[in-house]
Amino acid sequence: MSANKGLNLTLKVWRQKSQKEKGQMETYQVSDISPDSSFLEMMDILNEQLIEEGKEPVAFDHDCREGICGSCSMYINGEAHGPGREITTCQLHMREFKNGDTIYIEPWRAKAFPVIKDLVVDRSAFDRIMAAGGFISVNTSGNTQDANAIPIEKANADKAFDAATCIGCGACVASCKNASAMLFVSAKVSQFALLPQGRVEAKERVRNMVKVMDEEGFGNCSNTGACEVECPKGISIENIARMNREYLNATLKGE
Amino acid sequence: MSWVKNTFSSSVGRKFAMALSALFLMIFLLQHFTINFISVLSKDTFNEISHFMGTNALVQFVLQPVLIFAVVYHFVMGFVLEIKNRNAREVKYAMNKGSANSTWFSRNMIVSGAVVLAFLGLHFYDFWIPEINVKYVQGDMSGLLADGSFRYYEELVHKFVDPVRVGIYVVAFVLLSMHLLHGFASAFQSMGARHAKYTPAIKKLGNIYAIAIPAGFIFIALFHHLTSH
Question: Of all residues in chain A, what percent are helix, strand and coil, respectively (each to 5)?
């Protein structure tokens, strides 16, 4: 048991009934919140309170609650996933807040991520970008070669792995002042571009993924670096430079 | 040539073109500073170089149009990208803590850029338009005053007599410094030029350039203001 006293908090939460309706910030009070509870548990307590009061609970995305799935998209006190670093909202704990704090809770804000309800946004734009090239074409006839049979430089294997840890949560888009998706797209481009299996389709991949990214209405990259600071997996903007190289190489030098 | 259109209308291509124009402008700024600084050291040398730059065909009819294109492109595309970026987030956050993850300079390139653009308007009114008028409208390519001496140094010093103009000059260069503090290294990132060994050096060089060059321009303005009385 924690010796810490429960927190009394004022929550300002974005409420929006549907994609078509206008939303607004609503104010709620929660009391005696354990500092050891996670942010999502605090949201659960708020929702139980709202249900008891006969009100509509706050809709929010969540799934694994262990920092893997990337579902819990919340913009907390002006930062994606709140004040912590390299964590998702489910890994944020109430001990980060003080008794009497006011906490702003908003959905990811981007034209390409329309709000479905309250804090839930439609991130299928990421799926469409992935469908445009975020894969390698392998003949799965049963004679597929073992990937480990191809020697890969350790440094590149590590960088590809780091890029592949992107969980597609969209915190980069939410944090970017331009709602740019370049950190996400560059991580996906990089994880393949750094490996021999991915080089085969590298030019086509980067061209198609950037094209769809632009069509989806994401903004441009201003190199502020906000995305890598807020990324729960610490994806580096080194990947954005690599994507720029890959794209320019594909468009200026490619066929 | 549809690949050219496709490339330079894409998000990555536009940033690449912004970076290229920025690099050209930074090289231009360095040579502009070098020539201006000579005015502090030697009036005659400054006059000679100014006359060369003002009458040399390569400078006037090749480099000057490229410079004008780079300036216009950089500003126009800067505003185009700003509008596109603003449109990418239709509903703003009720609370946004940009300072938690990025520098003010990087988030406000449009502000520092707009101030520099306003200053360029004054700069063109002060120097470039009169220069074009004398040389290409009046047809006087001699670069001489009525007394037979070169006019360039006198024109430069004359503009720095007014303290208000010097004040505007100083403010504009402080904003340019802020623009460059982010812009220098950012241009390399946009071009994909990033390397574990060289990027830290590029960032340091960028900081030195961003502070030293604008500070140098401010020094030149203050020097002439204080010594011309």
Answer: 40, 15, 45
State the pTM of this model. Answer: 0.94
Average pLDDT, integer, range B189-193: 96
The answer to whether B93 contacts chain A (CB < 8 Å) is yes
Query: In which band, very low, low, confident or very high, does the pLDDT at A4 lie, cut at 50, 70 and 90?
Result: low
User: Domains (ranges, CATH) in chain B?
Assistant: 2-91+103-227 (1.20.1300)
Could you name the CATH architecture of A123-137+150-253? Orthogonal Bundle (1.10)
- Write the pLDDT tens digit of every residue in B111-170: 999 999 999 999 999 888 988 888 888 888 888 888 888 889 999 999 899 999 999 999
The CATH code for residues A7-116 is: 3.10.20.30
Residue of A183, A195, A204, A216 lying closest to A246 (CA atoms): A204
Contacts of B150 (CB under 8 A, 6+ apart): B47, B48, B50, B51, B143, B144
Spatial contact of A23 and A14, defined as CB atoms under 8 Å apart: yes
Q: Which residues of chain A lie closer than 8 angstroms to B87, CB-CB?
A: 111, 217, 219
pLDDT in tens, A218-233: 999 999 999 999 999 9
Q: Which residues of chain B does A162 touch, with a Cβ-Cβ cutoff of 8 Å?
A: none
Q: What is the DSSP string of A198-219?
A: HHTTHHHHHHHHHHHHHHTT-B
User: In which band, very low, low, confident or very high, does the pLDDT at A3 lie, cut at 50, 70 and 90?
Assistant: low
How far is Cα A218 from Cα A210, in angstroms, rounded to an integer?
A: 10
- Residue to mutate among A25, A244, A248, A252, with most B CBs inside 10 A, is A244
In terms of Cβ atoms closer than 10 Å to its own Cβ (0-12, 13-18, 19+), residue B58 is exposed
Interface of B with A in 122-181 (CB under 8 A): none
Distance CA B229, CA B222 (A): 12
Identify the pLDDT of residue B161.
Answer: 93
The contacts of residue B75 (CB under 8 Å, 6+ apart) are: B113, B117
| Domain limits, chain A | 7-116, 123-137+150-253
